[in-house]
Protein backbone atom coordinates (compact mmCIF):
# COMPACT_ATOMS: atom_id res chain seq x y z
CA UNK A 1 0.00 0.00 0.00
CA UNK A 2 1.47 3.33 -1.09
CA UNK A 3 1.03 6.63 0.73
CA UNK A 4 0.10 9.85 -1.08
CA UNK A 5 0.41 13.27 0.54
CA UNK A 6 -1.57 16.23 -0.80
CA UNK A 7 0.18 19.53 -0.01
CA UNK A 8 -2.45 21.62 -1.81
CA UNK A 9 -4.07 24.85 -0.59
CA UNK A 10 -6.47 25.21 -3.53
CA UNK A 11 -9.54 23.52 -2.01
CA UNK A 12 -11.28 22.88 -5.33
CA UNK A 13 -8.26 21.21 -6.94
CA UNK A 14 -7.53 19.28 -3.77
CA UNK A 15 -11.08 17.90 -3.51
CA UNK A 16 -11.08 16.95 -7.18
CA UNK A 17 -7.74 15.13 -6.97
CA UNK A 18 -8.69 13.36 -3.76
CA UNK A 19 -11.92 12.11 -5.35
CA UNK A 20 -10.04 10.78 -8.39
CA UNK A 21 -7.54 8.90 -6.22
CA UNK A 22 -10.28 7.31 -4.10
CA UNK A 23 -12.26 6.31 -7.19
CA UNK A 24 -9.38 4.95 -9.30
CA UNK A 25 -6.60 3.93 -6.90
CA UNK A 26 -8.22 3.16 -3.52
CA UNK A 27 -6.87 -0.41 -3.47
CA UNK A 28 -3.28 0.75 -4.01
CA UNK A 29 -2.84 3.77 -1.78
CA UNK A 30 -3.86 5.78 1.26
CA UNK A 31 -4.11 9.59 1.30
CA UNK A 32 -2.49 11.85 3.87
CA UNK A 33 -3.19 15.56 4.04
CA UNK A 34 -0.85 18.41 4.95
CA UNK A 35 1.90 17.26 7.32
CA UNK A 36 0.02 14.35 8.89
CA UNK A 37 2.24 11.81 7.14
CA UNK A 38 4.85 10.25 9.47
CA UNK A 39 8.15 10.38 7.56
CA UNK A 40 8.11 10.79 3.79
CA UNK A 41 5.20 9.63 1.61
CA UNK A 42 5.73 7.50 -1.46
CA UNK A 43 4.08 10.19 -3.59
CA UNK A 44 3.86 13.91 -2.85
CA UNK A 45 1.61 16.23 -4.84
CA UNK A 46 2.77 19.73 -3.97
CA UNK A 47 1.19 22.96 -5.10
CA UNK A 48 3.58 25.56 -6.54
CA UNK A 49 2.30 28.94 -5.41
CA UNK A 50 5.62 30.82 -5.32
CA UNK A 51 9.08 30.18 -6.84
CA UNK A 52 10.31 29.29 -3.34
CA UNK A 53 8.17 26.14 -3.46
CA UNK A 54 10.69 24.73 -5.96
CA UNK A 55 13.36 25.17 -3.29
CA UNK A 56 11.20 23.16 -0.90
CA UNK A 57 10.92 20.38 -3.47
CA UNK A 58 14.69 20.43 -3.94
CA UNK A 59 15.18 19.98 -0.19
CA UNK A 60 12.66 17.14 -0.08
CA UNK A 61 14.44 15.42 -2.96
CA UNK A 62 17.79 15.75 -1.19
CA UNK A 63 16.41 14.10 1.94
CA UNK A 64 14.49 11.35 0.17
CA UNK A 65 15.23 10.43 -3.44
CA UNK A 66 12.60 7.68 -3.36
CA UNK A 67 9.68 10.08 -2.92
CA UNK A 68 7.86 10.75 -6.23
CA UNK A 69 7.12 14.48 -6.23
CA UNK A 70 4.55 15.96 -8.61
CA UNK A 71 4.38 19.78 -8.68
CA UNK A 72 0.92 21.28 -9.19
CA UNK A 73 1.47 24.58 -11.01
CA UNK A 74 -0.85 27.51 -11.54
CA UNK A 75 -0.80 28.96 -15.11
CA UNK A 76 1.06 32.15 -14.14
CA UNK A 77 4.02 30.08 -12.87
CA UNK A 78 4.09 27.66 -15.78
CA UNK A 79 7.24 29.39 -17.07
CA UNK A 80 9.12 27.90 -14.09
CA UNK A 81 8.06 24.34 -14.90
CA UNK A 82 11.38 23.45 -16.57
CA UNK A 83 12.78 23.24 -13.04
CA UNK A 84 11.02 19.88 -12.84
CA UNK A 85 13.56 18.56 -15.35
CA UNK A 86 16.50 19.98 -13.38
CA UNK A 87 15.12 18.36 -10.22
CA UNK A 88 14.75 15.04 -12.07
CA UNK A 89 11.02 14.72 -11.41
CA UNK A 90 8.87 12.36 -13.47
CA UNK A 91 6.24 14.90 -14.48
CA UNK A 92 4.11 17.78 -13.24
CA UNK A 93 0.51 18.95 -13.33
CA UNK A 94 -0.76 22.31 -14.54
CA UNK A 95 -4.03 23.72 -13.25
CA UNK A 96 -6.72 22.81 -14.01
CA UNK A 97 -5.56 19.19 -13.87
CA UNK A 98 -7.03 16.75 -16.41
CA UNK A 99 -8.23 13.47 -14.92
CA UNK A 100 -6.82 11.08 -17.53
CA UNK A 101 -3.39 12.67 -17.40
CA UNK A 102 -3.40 12.69 -13.58
CA UNK A 103 -4.38 9.04 -13.19
CA UNK A 104 -1.92 7.99 -15.90
CA UNK A 105 0.97 9.64 -14.04
CA UNK A 106 -0.03 8.31 -10.62
CA UNK A 107 -0.21 4.75 -11.96
CA UNK A 108 3.14 5.26 -13.67
CA UNK A 109 4.53 6.31 -10.28
CA UNK A 110 3.13 3.13 -8.70
CA UNK A 111 4.92 1.09 -11.38
CA UNK A 112 8.25 2.84 -10.83
CA UNK A 113 7.94 2.34 -7.07
CA UNK A 114 7.19 -1.34 -7.57
CA UNK A 115 10.15 -1.72 -9.94
CA UNK A 116 12.38 0.46 -7.75
CA UNK A 117 13.21 2.61 -10.79
CA UNK A 118 13.45 6.39 -10.80
CA UNK A 119 11.62 6.99 -14.08
CA UNK A 120 12.36 9.88 -16.42
CA UNK A 121 10.68 13.22 -17.06
CA UNK A 122 7.59 12.88 -19.23
CA UNK A 123 7.89 15.63 -21.85
CA UNK A 124 4.80 14.44 -23.68
CA UNK A 125 2.52 15.09 -20.71
CA UNK A 126 3.79 18.59 -19.99
CA UNK A 127 3.61 19.52 -23.68
CA UNK A 128 0.03 18.26 -23.77
CA UNK A 129 -0.83 20.51 -20.81
CA UNK A 130 0.88 23.52 -22.37
CA UNK A 131 -1.10 22.95 -25.56
CA UNK A 132 -4.29 22.86 -23.53
CA UNK A 133 -3.33 26.24 -22.05
CA UNK A 134 -2.54 27.59 -25.52
CA UNK A 135 1.12 28.12 -24.57
CA UNK A 136 2.87 25.45 -26.63
CA UNK A 137 5.84 27.07 -28.36
CA UNK A 138 5.74 30.16 -26.12
CA UNK A 139 7.68 28.85 -23.12
CA UNK A 140 9.90 26.29 -24.83
CA UNK A 141 13.26 27.94 -24.10
CA UNK A 142 13.48 26.85 -20.43
CA UNK A 143 12.68 23.26 -21.42
CA UNK A 144 15.26 23.34 -24.19
CA UNK A 145 17.90 24.56 -21.75
CA UNK A 146 16.99 22.07 -19.02
CA UNK A 147 17.00 19.16 -21.48
CA UNK A 148 20.32 20.17 -23.05
CA UNK A 149 21.99 20.64 -19.67
CA UNK A 150 20.94 17.14 -18.66
CA UNK A 151 22.16 15.84 -22.01
CA UNK A 152 25.59 17.42 -21.48
CA UNK A 153 25.82 15.99 -17.97
CA UNK A 154 25.19 12.52 -19.38
CA UNK A 155 22.02 12.14 -17.29
CA UNK A 156 19.77 11.09 -20.18
CA UNK A 157 20.10 7.39 -20.86
CA UNK A 158 17.09 6.47 -23.00
CA UNK A 159 16.15 7.24 -26.57
CA UNK A 160 12.55 7.67 -25.41
CA UNK A 161 13.39 10.81 -23.44
CA UNK A 162 15.25 12.24 -26.43
CA UNK A 163 12.28 11.53 -28.70
CA UNK A 164 9.84 13.18 -26.28
CA UNK A 165 12.12 16.20 -25.78
CA UNK A 166 12.09 16.91 -29.52
CA UNK A 167 8.67 18.51 -29.05
CA UNK A 168 10.43 21.43 -27.35
CA UNK A 169 13.27 21.75 -29.86
CA UNK A 170 12.80 23.91 -32.98
CA UNK A 171 12.61 21.71 -36.03
CA UNK A 172 12.92 18.71 -33.69
CA UNK A 173 16.68 19.11 -34.16
CA UNK A 174 18.99 17.76 -31.45
CA UNK A 175 22.49 19.32 -31.67
CA UNK A 176 25.41 17.08 -32.59
CA UNK A 177 28.42 19.22 -31.58
CA UNK A 178 29.49 21.37 -28.62
CA UNK A 179 31.74 24.44 -28.64
CA UNK A 180 33.27 25.50 -25.30
CA UNK A 181 33.74 29.29 -25.09
CA UNK A 182 35.71 31.46 -22.66
CA UNK A 183 37.16 34.93 -22.99
CA UNK A 184 37.89 38.40 -21.69
CA UNK A 185 37.14 42.03 -22.51
CA UNK A 186 40.28 43.96 -23.43
CA UNK A 187 38.94 47.36 -22.37
CA UNK A 188 36.28 47.00 -19.63
CA UNK A 189 35.63 50.74 -19.69
CA UNK A 190 34.49 50.46 -23.33
CA UNK A 191 31.86 47.87 -22.39
CA UNK A 192 30.55 50.11 -19.62
CA UNK A 193 30.64 53.30 -21.70
CA UNK A 194 28.88 51.82 -24.74
CA UNK A 195 26.34 49.91 -22.66
CA UNK A 196 26.74 46.42 -24.10
CA UNK A 197 27.35 43.13 -22.32
CA UNK A 198 29.93 40.70 -23.65
CA UNK A 199 27.85 37.47 -23.33
CA UNK A 200 24.97 39.01 -25.30
CA UNK A 201 27.28 40.43 -27.97
CA UNK A 202 28.98 37.05 -28.41
CA UNK A 203 25.65 35.27 -28.88
CA UNK A 204 24.36 37.90 -31.30
CA UNK A 205 27.50 37.71 -33.45
CA UNK A 206 27.31 33.92 -33.72
CA UNK A 207 23.59 34.02 -34.50
CA UNK A 208 24.09 36.61 -37.21
CA UNK A 209 27.02 34.77 -38.80
CA UNK A 210 25.53 31.26 -38.73
CA UNK A 211 21.89 32.12 -39.45
CA UNK A 212 22.07 31.45 -43.19
CA UNK A 213 23.08 27.79 -42.92
CA UNK A 214 22.56 26.72 -39.28
CA UNK A 215 18.84 27.06 -38.49
CA UNK A 216 19.16 26.68 -34.74
CA UNK A 217 21.95 27.68 -32.36
CA UNK A 218 21.62 26.92 -28.65
CA UNK A 219 23.60 28.69 -25.93
CA UNK A 220 24.01 27.42 -22.37
CA UNK A 221 25.71 29.87 -19.99
CA UNK A 222 27.79 28.69 -17.06
CA UNK A 223 29.68 30.99 -14.73
CA UNK A 224 33.03 31.28 -16.49
CA UNK A 225 32.22 29.65 -19.79
CA UNK A 226 29.41 29.26 -22.27
CA UNK A 227 28.68 26.38 -24.61
CA UNK A 228 27.24 26.71 -28.08
CA UNK A 229 25.44 23.74 -29.60
CA UNK A 230 24.19 23.17 -33.13
CA UNK A 231 23.96 20.59 -35.89
CA UNK A 232 26.84 20.13 -38.29
CA UNK A 233 25.50 18.96 -41.70
CA UNK A 234 25.41 15.19 -42.11
CA UNK A 235 27.89 15.36 -45.00
CA UNK A 236 30.57 16.79 -42.66
CA UNK A 237 32.37 14.58 -40.16
CA UNK A 238 33.92 17.54 -38.34
CA UNK A 239 33.49 21.28 -37.91
CA UNK A 240 37.18 21.59 -38.70
CA UNK A 241 36.62 20.28 -42.23
CA UNK A 242 33.28 22.01 -42.77
CA UNK A 243 34.49 24.95 -44.83
CA UNK A 244 31.60 27.34 -44.17
CA UNK A 245 31.37 26.56 -40.46
CA UNK A 246 35.11 26.86 -39.81
CA UNK A 247 35.32 30.14 -41.73
CA UNK A 248 32.34 31.54 -39.82
CA UNK A 249 33.95 30.70 -36.49
CA UNK A 250 37.06 32.64 -37.48
CA UNK A 251 35.03 35.62 -38.72
CA UNK A 252 33.14 35.85 -35.44
CA UNK A 253 36.37 35.63 -33.43
CA UNK A 254 37.97 38.39 -35.53
CA UNK A 255 34.87 40.60 -35.44
CA UNK A 256 34.50 40.39 -31.67
CA UNK A 257 38.12 41.37 -31.17
CA UNK A 258 38.12 44.12 -33.80
CA UNK A 259 34.80 45.81 -32.99
CA UNK A 260 34.44 45.21 -29.26
CA UNK A 261 37.83 44.20 -27.90
CA UNK A 262 36.30 40.87 -26.87
CA UNK A 263 38.84 38.04 -27.03
CA UNK A 264 37.23 34.60 -27.07
CA UNK A 265 38.86 31.18 -27.04
CA UNK A 266 36.87 28.27 -28.39
CA UNK A 267 37.37 24.55 -27.85
CA UNK A 268 35.42 22.36 -30.28
CA UNK A 269 34.38 18.78 -29.53
CA UNK A 270 33.74 15.99 -31.99
CA UNK A 271 30.50 15.50 -33.93
CA UNK A 272 28.21 12.88 -32.38
CA UNK A 273 25.24 11.77 -34.44
CA UNK A 274 23.85 9.85 -31.47
CA UNK A 275 22.31 12.38 -29.01
CA UNK A 276 22.99 10.21 -25.96
CA UNK A 277 26.73 10.62 -26.63
CA UNK A 278 26.72 14.41 -26.90
CA UNK A 279 28.17 14.80 -23.40
CA UNK A 280 31.44 13.45 -24.83
CA UNK A 281 31.58 16.42 -27.20
CA UNK A 282 31.19 18.75 -24.21
CA UNK A 283 34.11 17.16 -22.37
CA UNK A 284 36.19 17.17 -25.53
CA UNK A 285 35.49 20.85 -26.16
CA UNK A 286 36.59 21.68 -22.62
CA UNK A 287 39.79 19.67 -23.07
CA UNK A 288 40.52 21.27 -26.45
CA UNK A 289 40.12 24.73 -24.92
CA UNK A 290 42.80 23.93 -22.33
CA UNK A 291 45.26 22.21 -24.66
CA UNK A 292 48.13 24.11 -26.34
CA UNK A 293 47.01 25.04 -29.86
CA UNK A 294 47.87 23.01 -32.95
CA UNK A 295 47.32 26.02 -35.22
CA UNK A 296 45.32 28.86 -33.61
CA UNK A 297 45.12 29.96 -30.00
CA UNK A 298 41.57 31.23 -30.44
CA UNK A 299 40.11 28.08 -32.04
CA UNK A 300 41.15 24.59 -31.01
CA UNK A 301 39.69 21.26 -32.11
CA UNK A 302 39.64 18.09 -30.06
CA UNK A 303 40.70 16.01 -33.06
CA UNK A 304 43.94 18.03 -33.17
CA UNK A 305 44.97 16.60 -29.79
CA UNK A 306 47.40 13.73 -30.16
CA UNK A 307 46.03 10.26 -29.45
CA UNK A 308 49.53 8.72 -29.36
CA UNK A 309 49.79 7.02 -25.97
CA UNK A 310 53.55 7.58 -25.68
CA UNK A 311 53.22 11.29 -26.35
CA UNK A 312 50.30 11.54 -23.95
CA UNK A 313 52.61 10.15 -21.30
CA UNK A 314 55.17 12.85 -22.17
CA UNK A 315 52.52 15.58 -22.07
CA UNK A 316 51.47 14.43 -18.60
CA UNK A 317 55.12 14.57 -17.54
CA UNK A 318 55.44 18.12 -18.89
CA UNK A 319 52.29 19.10 -16.98
CA UNK A 320 53.89 17.97 -13.72
CA UNK A 321 57.39 19.39 -14.27
CA UNK A 322 56.92 22.52 -16.41
CA UNK A 323 58.38 24.82 -13.74
CA UNK A 324 61.67 22.92 -13.88
CA UNK A 325 64.42 23.39 -16.44
CA UNK A 326 63.04 20.69 -18.74
CA UNK A 327 65.14 19.48 -21.64
CA UNK A 328 63.92 17.61 -24.69
CA UNK A 329 66.29 14.77 -23.83
CA UNK A 330 64.84 14.45 -20.34
CA UNK A 331 61.29 14.08 -21.69
CA UNK A 332 62.29 11.82 -24.60
CA UNK A 333 63.89 9.49 -22.08
CA UNK A 334 60.48 8.94 -20.48
CA UNK A 335 59.45 6.85 -23.49
CA UNK A 336 62.91 5.63 -24.51
CA UNK A 337 63.14 7.55 -27.79
CA UNK A 338 66.10 9.33 -29.31
CA UNK A 339 65.98 13.13 -29.21
CA UNK A 340 65.80 13.60 -33.03
CA UNK A 341 62.99 11.06 -33.46
CA UNK A 342 61.08 12.36 -30.44
CA UNK A 343 61.34 15.95 -31.67
CA UNK A 344 59.96 15.03 -35.11
CA UNK A 345 57.15 12.95 -33.60
CA UNK A 346 56.26 15.67 -31.09
CA UNK A 347 56.04 18.35 -33.79
CA UNK A 348 53.98 16.09 -36.05
CA UNK A 349 51.46 15.17 -33.35
CA UNK A 350 51.10 18.50 -31.54
CA UNK A 351 51.80 20.95 -34.35
CA UNK A 352 54.38 22.68 -32.14
CA UNK A 353 58.02 22.27 -31.19
CA UNK A 354 58.89 20.91 -27.77
CA UNK A 355 60.17 24.31 -26.58
CA UNK A 356 57.03 26.11 -27.76
CA UNK A 357 54.78 23.56 -26.07
CA UNK A 358 56.52 23.73 -22.69
CA UNK A 359 56.57 27.52 -22.80
CA UNK A 360 52.87 27.63 -23.60
CA UNK A 361 52.07 25.41 -20.60
CA UNK A 362 53.98 27.88 -18.42
CA UNK A 363 52.11 30.82 -19.95
CA UNK A 364 48.78 29.07 -19.26
CA UNK A 365 49.71 28.90 -15.61
CA UNK A 366 50.82 32.53 -15.69
CA UNK A 367 47.40 33.53 -17.04
CA UNK A 368 45.72 31.86 -14.07
CA UNK A 369 48.11 33.46 -11.57
CA UNK A 370 47.62 36.92 -13.07
CA UNK A 371 43.85 36.56 -12.94
CA UNK A 372 43.40 34.90 -9.57
CA UNK A 373 46.30 36.01 -7.35
CA UNK A 374 48.02 39.21 -6.27
CA UNK A 375 51.50 37.89 -7.01
CA UNK A 376 53.78 40.41 -8.68
CA UNK A 377 55.07 39.82 -12.18
CA UNK A 378 58.51 39.19 -10.68
CA UNK A 379 57.11 36.52 -8.34
CA UNK A 380 55.20 34.81 -11.16
CA UNK A 381 58.27 34.80 -13.39
CA UNK A 382 60.33 33.18 -10.65
CA UNK A 383 57.66 30.60 -9.80
CA UNK A 384 57.36 29.49 -13.43
CA UNK A 385 61.09 29.18 -14.03
CA UNK A 386 61.73 32.21 -16.25
CA UNK A 387 65.24 33.65 -15.91
CA UNK A 388 64.17 37.29 -15.57
CA UNK A 389 60.89 39.22 -15.24
CA UNK A 390 61.68 41.02 -18.50
CA UNK A 391 62.12 37.74 -20.38
CA UNK A 392 58.84 36.49 -18.89
CA UNK A 393 56.99 39.65 -19.97
CA UNK A 394 58.34 39.46 -23.53
CA UNK A 395 57.46 35.76 -23.78
CA UNK A 396 53.99 36.32 -22.35
CA UNK A 397 53.24 39.04 -24.89
CA UNK A 398 54.51 36.85 -27.73
CA UNK A 399 52.12 34.05 -26.80
CA UNK A 400 49.12 35.94 -25.38
CA UNK A 401 49.26 39.11 -27.47
CA UNK A 402 49.30 41.30 -24.34
CA UNK A 403 51.88 42.07 -21.69
CA UNK A 404 51.26 40.57 -18.22
CA UNK A 405 50.20 43.96 -16.82
CA UNK A 406 47.85 44.56 -19.77
CA UNK A 407 46.29 41.13 -19.33
CA UNK A 408 45.77 41.72 -15.61
CA UNK A 409 43.81 44.88 -16.49
CA UNK A 410 41.36 42.98 -18.71
CA UNK A 411 37.99 41.70 -17.49
CA UNK A 412 37.19 38.00 -17.49
CA UNK A 413 33.78 37.33 -19.03
CA UNK A 414 31.26 35.98 -16.53
CA UNK A 415 28.44 34.37 -18.50
CA UNK A 416 26.01 33.61 -15.68
UniProtKB/TrEMBL annotation:
<keyword id="KW-0805">Transcription regulation</keyword>
<feature type="domain" description="HTH araC/xylS-type">
    <location>
        <begin position="312"/>
        <end position="410"/>
    </location>
</feature>
<dbReference type="InterPro" id="IPR020449">
    <property type="entry name" value="Tscrpt_reg_AraC-type_HTH"/>
</dbReference>
<dbReference type="GO" id="GO:0003700">
    <property type="term" value="F:DNA-binding transcription factor activity"/>
</dbReference>
<dbReference type="Pfam" id="PF17853">
    <property type="entry name" value="GGDEF_2"/>
</dbReference>
<dbReference type="InterPro" id="IPR018062">
    <property type="entry name" value="HTH_AraC-typ_CS"/>
</dbReference>
<keyword id="KW-0238">DNA-binding</keyword>
<dbReference type="Pfam" id="PF12833">
    <property type="entry name" value="HTH_18"/>
</dbReference>
<protein>
    <recommendedName>
        <fullName>HTH araC/xylS-type domain-containing protein</fullName>
    </recommendedName>
</protein>
<dbReference type="GO" id="GO:0043565">
    <property type="term" value="F:sequence-specific DNA binding"/>
</dbReference>
<dbReference type="InterPro" id="IPR018060">
    <property type="entry name" value="HTH_AraC"/>
</dbReference>
<dbReference type="InterPro" id="IPR009057">
    <property type="entry name" value="Homeodomain-like_sf"/>
</dbReference>
<dbReference type="InterPro" id="IPR041522">
    <property type="entry name" value="CdaR_GGDEF"/>
</dbReference>
<keyword id="KW-0804">Transcription</keyword>
Amino acid sequence: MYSIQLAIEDKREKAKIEAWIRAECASQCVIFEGDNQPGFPHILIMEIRTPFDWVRIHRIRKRNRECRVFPLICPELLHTSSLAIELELQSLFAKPVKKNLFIRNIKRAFESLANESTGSFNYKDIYEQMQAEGRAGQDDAPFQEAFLRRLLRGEISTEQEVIEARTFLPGAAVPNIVCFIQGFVRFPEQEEKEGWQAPTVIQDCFLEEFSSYVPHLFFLPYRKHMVMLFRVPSACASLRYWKEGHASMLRVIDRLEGEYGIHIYVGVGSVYREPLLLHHSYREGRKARRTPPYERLSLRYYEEITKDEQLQKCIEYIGKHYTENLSVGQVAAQINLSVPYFSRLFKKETGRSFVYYVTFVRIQRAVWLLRHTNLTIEQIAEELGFNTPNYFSCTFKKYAGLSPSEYRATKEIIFL
